[in-house]
Amino acid sequence: MTKEEWKVYGNVFSEHSRRLLFKMSGQGYFEELESQISVGKEANVFTAITKNNDRIIVKIYRLENCNFNKMYDYLIADPRYLGTARNQRRIVFTWTQREFRNLMLAREVIKVPKPIAFKDNILLMEFIGKTDPAPELKNHPPKDPEKFFKKIVENMHKLYNKGLIHGDLSPFNILNHNEEPVFIDFSQGTMITAADASILLKRDIHNISTYFKRLGVKVDEDSIYEKITK
Question: What is the mean pLDDT of the chain?
Answer without folding.
Answer: 94
